[in-house]
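Tutorial handout. Part one gives the primary structure; part two gives the three-dimensional structure as tokens.
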Amino acid sequence: MRAVAIVICPPAARTGTLCGMDTQSTSAPATAHTTIRLLRLSINGVEHEHTAPAHTTLAALLREHAELTGTKVACDQAACGACTVLLDGEPVFACHTLAAQVQGSRVLTIEGIGGDQLDPLQGAFIDRDAMQCGFCTPGMILALKAAVARAAAAGIKPGRAELAQAISGNVCRCGAYPHILDAALDVVGRV
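Part two.
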């Protein structure tokens, strides 16, 4: 899982402090909230254009601007994986990825998999009772979807240990890991 977090400073703000900010203060500079960016990206196969403040995260863009609320925000610190989406096919923590960083990229959310039918992973999660509260489920499914796709492209069938590694950045507070891995193994067996 890659976590993307970069600070982009305009040349005028590159001083001895971090982007011209008072490093002793916990508040962001006023200009960070007033800079509006036009963002163009593909979300679930549909081209989107949104305007958003420069500090907008990918999770906020998906939830608040694109109205795709399947991407959950729990810890907001890239520690639980609830916000996992696929960025150009790779899992990322949307809560710590700036929307401006994904300009021109392809984003896949839980709403975009399967189309009008359930994705095989979604069906396997239901069959194996792999969700309790369901809060982690979208992130788990997307992390596993990327792992299964990578394995299929390499011509290998991942085992339980490899699938567990694929969701190592995702936390299930209900402890449904055995069922989650059983569901993923069911899908791997069909690929």
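Part three, for discussion. Residues 33 and 53 are 6 Å apart (CA to CA). Residues 137-154 form the longest helix (18 residues).
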